[in-house]
C-alpha cells in the first residue's frame, strides 16, 4: 500500500461519507490540506470570503439535504468569525462538521502567532468539540464527528486538525460512518396514559418545533391536531412543521418576550409540546406559564429539552413521527363520541377565526397596495403570483416576514426555511446553500438591510461558483426590530419620549445595495414604487444567475 498522509485520509473519509462539498476560506495552517483537495475532483471546494457567511451557506445546504455539511476554517481567527453563525446552526439543529486548521501540536508550548484553544472557542456553540493530536485517531475522530452531527438532535460539531498531525503518514482504515437509527417509539402504556389525560381537554394547545420537521412528521402533526381539535403554534420552528394555510395553524410564538409565549398557554387545560423546548425567548418567563391544573405532555428525541425549564406531566424521549402517529391512534380510541364532537366543533371554530383573520390582514394590505413609501405586501403579493410552484424561500425578512408570508405562504415541507432568531445575516448565504443543494429549483433569500450587511460577502460566492440564487434586501434604512422592541420596553402611557435612538437608523450615507452587489459580481435592481415591482420580479426570475432586488420600504413602526 502506498503511504499517504492524514490530508488524504481525511478527504477520503469525507468521500466515504458521501460529502461532496467542502465550504472553506483558505489559510496558511491548512495549506497541505488545501493542496490535497485539488486531487479530489469529486469534492468541490466552495469558497467564501468571510467565515460567518460561509457557515450560513453550509447551514442552508445541510438544511436542504438533511445531511451533514463540511466546513474548513482557518485557525482561531477564522473560527472566531464563525461563532455567531455556529450559534445559529446549533439552535437550528443543523448537521455540520466544522474543522479548523492550526500550525501543529508541536507548537503548543510556544504560544505562537494565531495560537488559541480552538476547542474552548467552539464548545459553547457546538454539540461536540474535540482536537486530533495523533495520526492514529484522526479519521476515527472525524467519523465520530460525522456521527454526532447526524444523530438527532442534530447539530454542528467541531474538530481541530493541527497541520503536523495531518502531515504524518496515516494508515487508518476509511469506512462509512454508522449513524444510529433513532426512530424509537414510546412504550404503548405511556401513549395510552397520555391519550386518556388529553381526551377530555376543553382548551388544548400544541407547541411544535424543528424536531417535527427533522422527523418528517408534518402529516402526523396535522392528523393529531385535527383529531384533538387543537391549534398549533410554532416554537423555534425554522422549517415548515405544518402548512400555514391549514385552519389549525395558529402562528409562531416569537422568540423575544416570555409574556407573549406564556399568553399562548395561559388558558390551556392541556398542552402537547413536540420537537422543541419551552420557551425559546430572549426575555423568558421565569415562572411556570402553564395552568396549575394543566396536563402537559412533552415529546422529543432530546431528553434535555423535556421539562428543561418548566415541569411536565408526561415526558417521552421518542421520535415525533412515530409518537404523534401512535398518540393519534390512541386518542381516537379513547375519546368518547361527545369528546370527538367537541373537538370537531373546536377545530371548525378555530378554522373560521383563522380564515377571518387572514382575510382581514390581506384586505388591509390591499388597501395600502399603491402607497409610497412602498409596503412589503406590494412585493409579496406579486411574488406569490409569479414564483414557480416549486420555489424555495429563505425568510430573514424579520419585521417584514408577516407581510411576506401572508402572500407567499408556506405550505409544503422543503419549500420554506427561516431564521429562528439570535443571529443576523443568515438569509442571503442561506439561500446560496439552498440553491447549491437544489440547483434545479428557484431559491429566493430575504434579508433586512441591517442583517444583510453581516454576510453580504456570500454574494461573491454565488457569483464565483455560478450559484443562481435570488436575493431580496428589505431596505427601510433602520433596525426596525429594535424600534419595535423599544416600543414594548417603554412604560405604558409614556407619551413624553417617542424619539428612537439615532443609532437605530442606518443612513447618512444610505447604503446602495445594488451597487454593492454589483461590486461582488451580482447584478440587481432597486424598487421603490409599486408600479416597478412586476418589472423587477420578472428581471430577477428571468436572469440566468444570481440576482438581487433592493426593495425600498416604508419606515413605519407599529405601536
From TrEMBL:
Family annotation (PANTHER family) = THIAMINE PYROPHOSPHATE ENZYMES
Is Secreted included in the keywords of this UniProt record?
Answer: no
Matching InterPro entries: DHS-like_NAD/FAD-binding_dom, THDP-binding, Thiamin_PyroP_enz_cen_dom, Thiamin_PyroP_enz_TPP-bd_dom, TPP-bd_CS, TPP_enz, TPP_enzyme_TPP-bd
What keyword terms does UniProt attach to this protein? Thiamine pyrophosphate
Question: What segments bear the compositional bias annotation Basic and acidic residues?
Answer: 363-373
Spans of biased composition, class Low complexity?
A: 352-362
Region of interest: Disordered: 335-373
- Identify the CDD domains for this entry: TPP_BFDC, TPP_PYR_POX_like
- Could you tell me which residue ranges the Thiamine pyrophosphate enzyme TPP-binding domain spans? 407-551
**According to its UniProt record, which protein family does this protein belong to?**
Belongs to the TPP enzyme family.
Task: Tell me which SUPFAM superfamilies the record gives.
Answer: DHS-like NAD/FAD-binding domain, Thiamin diphosphate-binding fold (THDP-binding)
Query: Organism source for this protein?
Result: Paractinoplanes durhamensis
Domain spans labelled Thiamine pyrophosphate enzyme N-terminal TPP-binding: 5-109
Keyword Protease tagged: no
**Which residue range or ranges hold the Thiamine pyrophosphate enzyme central domain?**
191-327
This chain's protein is named Benzoylformate decarboxylase
